[in-house]
Amino acid sequence: MNKSTFFSGQPIFTQLLKFIPRDVVSRIARDSKSDRYSKRFSTYEHLVTMLYSIFNNCNSLREVTTGMLASEQRLNHMGIRYHPRRSTISDANTRRSAEVFGEIYYSLHKKYSQFLSDSRKRSRASKLYVFDATTISLFQEVLRTSGKNPSGKRKGGIKVHTLIRSDQDVPSMIRFSAAAANDSQFLREVHLPKGSIIVFDRGYYDFTTLNRFSSEGITWVTRRRSNFAYDVLNNLANTNKHNGIIRHQHIRLGNRSSIRVEGRIIKYRDPDSGELYEFLTNNLRMDALTVTELYRKRWQIELLFKRMKQNYPLKYFLGDSENAIKIQIWCSLIADILLKIVKKGAATKWSFSNLAAMVRLHLMTYIDLFSFLRSPEMRWPNFHGQ
Question: What confidence tens digit (pLDDT) does each residue in 26-41 have?
Fold first, then answer.
């Protein structure tokens, strides 16, 4: 092997795993007793196996086990004591609680959140949060969906409710539900610092929570449901007619017999498409056009969902149980935060999809990850990293 600094004594996969503190995983496993009934396949080994399957885009247990068997001599680098069988992985996905992997994800988020923050956006975007959900279809009726697919056969579906801080682009809160579950209940679980701004889709309506946000000094921005009534308290001055703001009013949302929510409604016509939108907010001082721009930033979370579905195996799962599906989603989120750390630390700019593809192709290759990212097209034997 060439002695250039291009090469490393450990595979790329091992270099990625170094971002996960072993002592933290051991502590979480000990506190949750997730290794209590496991003699040979520990929580850490389970995590490494799942990350191997995710980085390699494996769609079956056979792909995972045969791939790891081909790299059996390198498993020692990763803390794997033996080659796991399909039945071992399957049993662990059924019995070991998915919450353990959720705790591992949150520990990584806490450790690296400041590093991942975009310093260029830190002044305002650090106060902006986006809350939304995406549905992952399942071939088994594990979690009930709303309605049937065109073939008439009911499929399963899991909805992932996600909160992100705008300057970090990684989830700070994750909740799961069946695809048919009412979204509004999950808004109650969101607790933010005073002065924060939260943007969410019109599916998340809970008047009690909206009033709580107002009492806690949190600005919320959403869209109005067409069937929600409101009373106009007074018309507000409109200084942005030339920018698409048709009207904005001080209102009280809801029926007189129910919980009422005070705020503003801003009617906006998109200058390009001509479509009419109605935005709601509890902030009575913010410029009307600023409110529309804040809601536009909700698109950021759609890009996160697109990134997850394009780069990780979330079409086929390594188990049919609800627990196994949640484990795979949590481990995909862990893989995502590891690649985000690498992308942020790379000396040159890489698109996320190219970085994920590079890691997949060279996962078990003995090359220095950051040297390779710095000069990926140089001939390996002649490379001399600085």
Answer: 999 999 999 887 778 9
Residue 148 pLDDT: 45
| Contact assessment for residue 331 and residue 317, using Cβ atoms and an 8 Å cutoff | no
**Distance in angstroms (rounded) separating the CA atoms of residues 50 and 30:** 20
CA–CA separation, 12 and 71 (whole Å): 13
Question: pTM for the full model?
Answer: 0.87
Q: Give the Å distances, CA to CA, from 340 to 115, 169, 331, 386.
A: 10, 9, 14, 24
CB 83 within 8 A of CB 76: no
The neighbour count for residue 301, using CB atoms within 10 Å, is 24
Q: Would the pLDDT of 109 be above 60?
A: yes
Neighbour-count burial for 143-162, b at 16+ CB within 10 Å, e otherwise: bebeeeeeeeeebbbbbbbb
Dmax over CA atoms of the chain, in Å, equals 78
| Count of helices and strands (H, E) across the chain | 13, 9
Question: In sequence order, what are the beta bridge partners of 230?
Answer: 253
Q: Which residues contact 264 (CB under 8 A, 6 or more apart)?
A: 236, 248, 249, 250, 251, 280, 281, 282, 283, 284, 288, 291
